[in-house]
Amino acid sequence: MVTLSPDVQANYTFLQNLQNYERTESGVHLFCENNVEIEIRFLKPGMFRWTLIRPGYQEPLLDYPLAKTNWDPVALKLTEEAPHLILSTKEMNLIIHKLPCRITVLDKQGNVINKDDPGMGVGWDGKEVRCWKSLAKDERFFGLGEKTGDLNKRGREWVMWNSDFPAYDNQTDPLYQSIPFYIGMHENRTYGIYFNNSYRATFNMGAGNRRYSSFAAEQGNLDYFFMYGPEVGEVVADYTELTGRIVLPPRWALGYQQCRWSYYPDTEVLNLAQTFRDKQIPADVIYLDIHYMDGYRVFTWDKDRFPNPAGMLRELQNMGFKVVTIIDPGVKADSAFSVAKEGIEHDHFVKYPDGEVYVGEVWPGASFFPDFSRPETRRWWGEKLVQ
Fold first, then answer.
1. Buried-most residue among 16, 56, 146, 305 (CB within 10 A)?
2. Residue 104 lies in a domain
3. Which strand (E) or helix (H) includes residue 38?
4. C-alpha angle with apex 177: 325 to 210, nearest 5 degrees?
């Protein structure tokens, strides 16, 4: 008899026994009790995708965060034994337990890399979904984006919900970046999990217990990618192959950079640059925050504070400085503002489900927000950056 942790809600429905399965080209399709299904697809010998399919709940899988969706076939061997199935590649063995349906990932020497919590494993409560993983004694966790606290994220629960808290401390969460990917390490083995869900999510990395870690979302699919190293660099390489890699940055972007909440007017920026040179303090980049804009309108200059932007930029270039101008995605809701007007006319802004354009409050006041999930909007915004 497995006793549930007190912070697990009693009204979760948990994944039950495996009843049947079908071998697929890239993995296996599982059929469990209560008409619940699971799709497991191998993308590489050390990486697979795990997707829960619940009766009565359908939402499209997120593919737009993925830079790569077409993968080469993986050599797989499927073996069935009484208590479980085994999917084997040259890098791992995936054990699929039948009673109840849970998974365990082993390396080729039989060591446990990661496994579902045997009692809870996978559950849902209405639209909420959660996956529980057993904690290894010495397991450490890294990642999850811009977070406070220690580099090792074990022992706390972390929220994925971009938030602006200027006066944050060492315990504040969430903050500005939400990256639902973490790296787990124990006994010289390293793996990564990318939770492919855009709803408000939480990652419990052993907060309040020594038994499990978990990841959950308020809505959406329980859809995650598992990747095995065993080295950290191999996990990161797999993750970036899946979600995309930045272009090689210019050398100056790796230099010393000076940034704070706004330098203005232009004379202050030039005086700052000259002071760095006079004092022989290395610096390659100066940032301009929102006060260079005209009323916080993105892609504009304040003509009083910066009457000759091109001339200022030339002077800074002559002193060896590059300049980064902050670009905010909050577009001032002003019918006379060309960016706002174009965005409305070409359907580029985020909307409510009923089709009304969403209006939020940020630095410009009432603002629209580009819907970057649309390729047309990404191209439009990119053209604005080039201009």
1. 305
2. yes
3. strand 36-44
4. 160
Contact 86, 94 (CB under 8 A): yes
316 and 335 together in one domain:
no
**Helix crossing, 375-386 with 338-345: angle to 10°?**
160
Residue ranges with strand state E in 333-382: 360-362, 365-368
Out of 243, 260, 283, a domain closes at 243
Total Cβ atoms within 10 A of residue 262: 15
Cβ partners under 8 Å of residue 86, min gap 6: 77, 78, 79, 80, 93, 94, 95, 96
pLDDT mean values, one per 10 residues, the chain (387 residues): 48 96 98 98 99 92 92 97 96 98 98 97 96 97 95 97 90 94 97 98 96 97 98 98 95 96 97 98 97 97 98 98 96 97 98 97 96 95 93
Question: What is the SS3 assignment for 311?
Answer: helix
Same domain, 35 and 96: yes
Q: Report the distance separating Cα 328 and Cα 176, nearest Å.
A: 13
Instruction: Give the domain range for residue 280.
Output: 251-325
Any idea which residue has 């006041």 for tokens?
365
- Contact between 114 and 182 (Cβ < 8 Å): no
Helix or strand run (H / E) with residue 237: helix 232-243
Do residues 158 and 173 lie in contact, with contact meaning Cβ atoms separated by under 8 Å? yes
Tell me the three state secondary structure of residue 291. helix
